[in-house]
Amino acid sequence: MFNKLFKIILALLSIVLCVTQFVNDNIGNGIALIFLSLIFILLYFKNEILILAFLRMRKQDLEGTEKYLNMIKNPEKSLIKKQYGYYNYLFGIIYSQKNLTQAEKFFKKALLLGLNMNHDIAMAKLSLAGILMQKRRKREATMLLNEAKKLDKHGMMTQQIKIMQTQMKKI
Asked: Which long-range contacts (CB under 8 A, 24 or more apart) does 9-15 make?
């Protein structure tokens, strides 16, 4: 919704207001302004539209997720690097149902930009390996599967990895 620079300016202004409230012995107002500035700082690092898109993705609503993602105008400039990675990650998941070539581009860009969580990186590599396997690029798919297996520390994707490895042997 708001530009990242605008969020930082609002956070700085609320901190300045907070200090003036503390100086004027308005402690309650100062504490409230601290929380307000923390909200702006949080929204700088976690984009509000991406949060809504993840909530839609959680409900398996791909159309709603795509609608929210399309609300972000100029994502290269309005999102920080990791947010832009998650933006591409979500589009990769959406396009994996529609167009594999587009999904491959989105997943590669998401991995290039970086994702915060290891299980997100593992999921992106696993999905990319599945796309490459369907395109008969076995060597790249095997490499990505092994990397996904290393990143899956909690064993959440072991079943999918095993299924893909058995399918890979048939190719």
From this structure: 10/40, 11/37, 11/40, 11/41, 11/44, 12/37, 14/40
Considering only CA atoms, which of 132, 125, 116 is closest in space to residue 160? 125
Q: pTM score, two decimals?
A: 0.79
Domain boundaries, the chain: 1-45
The Cα 101–Cα 89 span in angstroms is: 14
pLDDT tens digits for 93-144?
A: 899 888 888 888 999 999 898 888 888 888 888 888 888 888 888 888 888 8
d(CA 81, CA 86): 9
Q: Which of 108, 38, 51 is nearest to 79 (CA)?
A: 51
DSSP state of 96: T
